[in-house]
Amino acid sequence: MSASDRTWLWDAGALIALVDPAQPQHETAQRYLREALRTKATLYLSVMAAAEFHQRQSVTELPLRHWVVLPFNIDHAMVAGDLMRHARPAPDAMARAVVRDDIKLIAQAVCESIHHVLVESEGALSRHIAQFNQAGRSRVACVQLDQGFDAAWFNGGQKSLSLPDAG
């Protein structure tokens, strides 16, 4: 497994689920964090996800020592612009703003060779990742908390075997 296979970018929804026990995906987010730390995966915190998280609660409530803060730079901007030219058009201004932020996160993942993006559930971000992967513009795995924890994401897709008792 290459080093980039052990890289994760968390979106704001996944971060909220991690720190808010009232969120339905709280335990799953905590399991992903524990497994990432156990396997020495590199966790990235985009400044855009941090800003979205901070609208709801202070970003200092995150266990920041576990993340590499990822600023948005000119390389990310150029890739985001290229991706935006190929994105499906959004129906209204609010949706266009969400699409822009989602595509910026994807651009960061592409530029930094981040293999996994952790999201709370299927939404615009996961749909854009699928669209760009299908078009060959990215190779980012979108992992959804609402699908439950799967350790296979940390070991190259290898599923554990359930063997019958030897008794």
Question: What does this molecule look like?
Answer:
It is a single chain. It is built from 6 helices and 5 strands; from the N terminus they run βααβαβααβαβ. With 167 residues, the protein is of the alpha/beta class. The chain has one domain (7-152): 3-Layer(aba) Sandwich (Rossmann fold), CATH 3.40.50.1010. α1 (12-19) packs across α2 and α4 crosses α5 (93-111). The protein is globular and about 35 Å long. InterPro entries: PIN-like_dom_sf (IPR029060). This is PIN domain-containing protein.
**H/E element order:** EHHEHEHHEHE
CATH architecture, please? 3-Layer(aba) Sandwich
> Which CATH class applies here?
Alpha Beta
Biggest sheet character:
5 strands, parallel
Strand order of the largest sheet: 3-2-1-4-5
Radius of gyration over all CA atoms, rounded: 16 Å
| First-last Cα distance | 35 Å
Give the percentage of residues in beta strands: 5-15%
The overall number of domains is 1
The helix content, as a percent range, equals: 40-55%
Report the CATH topology name: Rossmann fold
The coarse overall form would be globular
Please supply descriptive tags for the structure shown above:
alpha/beta, globular, five-stranded parallel beta sheet, 6 helices, 13% strand, Rossmann fold, 167 residues
Summarize the structure.
By secondary structure, the protein is an alpha/beta fold.
Indicate the topology:
Elements: E1 7-10, H1 12-19, H2 26-38, E2 42-46, H3 47-56, E3 67-70, H4 74-86, H5 93-111, E4 116-119, H6 124-134, E5 141-144
Helix pairs in contact: 1-2, 1-3, 4-5, 5-6
